[in-house]
Structure formats: structure tokens, C-alpha cells
Task: structure prediction
Amino acid sequence: MEFSYKFWDVDNDIISPETSALIPTEINKVVVRNIIRSAETGLMLNVNVQKNLYTIRMFGEAIVSSNNKEEVYEIRRAIFKRQMIDFAEKYKGKIPDKIYIRLLNFELKEGGQ
Result:
């Protein structure tokens, strides 16, 4: 299993046992991509907008489209939440308890974390 060093307090750049931990790279990539995409574009990862139509595209397919941005974001948040729960269960016992709990409680927010 490959590990990455991840900061779990994104507002804190101090490296310490309280603010960071080694976690599987798979988790790190998904979390960081979502946070960076939101911060850079104001859109959640996998959400595209054209002419006020918001679309979630994953695995090469449109999952949902709507003119209601908040409706699409709620669906994307639910998908992300499910990913985090799946990661937590997959790596339970292999990651620190604080990371396991953080994954179970992780919420994706618009515009970054």
C-alpha cells in the first residue's frame, strides 16, 4: 500500500502529529483533487456548467444534469460522502483512528474546504 503525507487541517501548514498523518495515496488524491478543483474554479470536481446547466460527469458519463446548481451540488456531495465512507471502511485498522473518523465525517463544500 502506498502512503502520502496529508495535512488534515488545511488552514494549518504546521506539520505535527495533531495536524497531519500518513494516509493511503488513493484517499489523498481524491480529497486533494476535490478541494483544489473547488478552490480554483468555484465548481466541485466532476461538475461542469454550460449555459446554466450543471452536469455531474463521472467515468465518462453524465450522471445528472439540472439548471438547479444546489440540487446538483447536493448529489455530488452525497457521492463524495459515499466515497469517503467506502475509503474509511476499506482502510479501517490500517489508518489512524483520527483519519477513520475524519473520513466518516468529511463534508465536501463549495469553493474548497
Summary: The beta strands are 3-7, 20-24, 47-50, 53-58, 61-66. The mean pLDDT is 78.
